[in-house]
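Hi support team,

I'm opening this ticket because the web form for multi-chain structure prediction keeps timing out on my end. I have pasted the exact lines I submitted so you can reproduce it. The total is 633 residues across two entries, so I didn't expect it to be a heavy job. Is there a limit I'm missing, or should I split the entries? Thanks in advance, R.K.
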Amino acid sequence: MKTFLDSVKNYSWGAVSERILSSTEDDVLRALRNGAADAEGIRALLSPAAGKYLDIMSALSAKITRARFGNTVQLYAPLYISNECSNRCLYCGFNADNDIKRVTLNEEQIREEARALHEKGFRHVLLLTGEDTRAVPAGSLRDAVEAMHSVFASVSIEVYPMDAEGYRSMTESGADGLTLYQETYNRGTYSAMHPSGKKSDYEWRLDAPDRGGMAGFRRIGIGALLGLSDWRTDSFFTALHALYLSKKYWKTQVLVSFPRIRNAPGGFSPPAEVADRDLAQLICAMRIILPDAGLVLSTREPARLRDRLVPLGITSMSAGSKTSPGGYSDTGLADGQFSVEDTRSPEEITAMLKKSGLDPVWKDWDRGFLH
Amino acid sequence: MKSYDIKTDELVIAGSAFRSRLFLGSGKFSSIAAMNSAIEESGTEMVTVALRRVDLENPSDDLLSAVTGNKKIRLLPNTSGARDADEAVRLCRLAREMGCGNWVKLEVTPDPRFLLPDPIETLKAAEILVKEGFTVLPYINADPILAKRLEEAGCATVMPLGSPIGSNRGLRTEDNLRIIIGMSNVPVVVDAGIGAPSQAARAMEMGADAVLVNTAIATAGDPASLAGAFRMAVEAGRRAMLSGMPPEGDASASSPLDGLLR
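Hello R.K., no limit was hit. The queue was backed up. Here is the completed structure from your submission:
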């Protein structure tokens, strides 16, 4: 069966980078006029030449977003089940070499976290783990999904890649969303960043969203970790990936996230800089390329920047996030994956959205859809 | 020729009479307050609410109570997001159990990008729901044969789209809408794609029984004011339709007997 891997075989990273850099203002204007859902348009909107048109791009992006999604932004919260991990991703707080406080929540602790989030108003939850199938085997993940399915309207997972059968068991247990970042589409950087563990297998990860699509997830979220490699080229592949998924798994909504990494425990600092202005250009470009995609911005970004970026095209955002297992009910239990920059409470986020003329939506799904 | 009187002109759906022929959607508003003022100005008596947006277990759910608390309007729960007949039916049963009544706007939209309705699953779901005593108002593409099949299945209306949801592109399906209006024995409500009062008026001039508007009003600079404009447009179109408005492009002489009497 053909997958995304087959469809990007003919692109070389270097050639793509070069063509992005050499895109002209004419290319940008053509993409803005005619739409950008092809390789040429994607390159143009991600190019340095497009930087000059950020005002026009942001107005267009906001307009498309309001027409398609209305004056609403959906809220969700991450719930970490475990920070145990066998990988050694250089940028990640959960790196197996890091000497941090680790824990895998038991069923009761997971329920406690769920209660805390439900009380804050959340109805959409994202379950996360590290990659350690001994600490969190697929079976206990399935149990966790089932337990959360009885509490929340929507349950998504952001866990280690699974085979199609594993994903199928997740959707059957009530998970409706899958988030899986490729981290970087650059093979060389990918290998350097993921020196060991299951995660070092680039292709296994690249085709995981395909397996998720086959398993029938209603939403599949992808993204590149911004800062690992040149953001323009990485985002070109992210956009191609999103277009590919939305055509092939046409019943699945595709979401794109914009996780920008900062310094991490273990002394990591991101090799490729992504300025605030770049992030704004990227969000607007993705909206114009993918008018119907969900665009996600997490609490990795500071409050002031989030307030400015959200109205441009973001359709869902996290609020009051904790990135450590047990973080909502027992803050001392374990260490987090990364430091949250926007530390505002869900109430404060809600107030901010309302001030911007946006209606915070806590529930936009119903578990009644699934058995 | 019927003379038009706003006071007596009624739309009857499954035995219930409505004075207003403008239905509203409740999504995409910037706040409940903005929605409420649009409802007020529109004069609507039927508002559809996506079941996936409301917390059925929570009677004080903002969106739901805003609609159910308004005695002038009928709540029309919808199944948007349902991917197949099973999901839509399950959601309708759930809504009825939770006290949302037995009227449903049936939406089976498996594709999350354009939200186009699945004709096969919609018909399947309609047949089940009608048997279970629901009053079914199905959202469909402008397919005249499907409209007849749904009518035969016992649906209370048909709700063909003018153009894709949220597109504001107006009556792109006009030719088929005219056929549906001409063939239908149940009220025809033009749903989706109506972006301007002039388009709503046109649908009514064509003989549609009602129109449903959401995105255009919800995302307007002044939703309440645009809702008022839609109200006038729907009334104008209805009145025009009942006034023997001469057909478009009719360049005939002033009296058809001119030649004969010369």
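A quick check on our side: Chain A has a mean pLDDT of 93. Let us know if the file doesn't open in your viewer.
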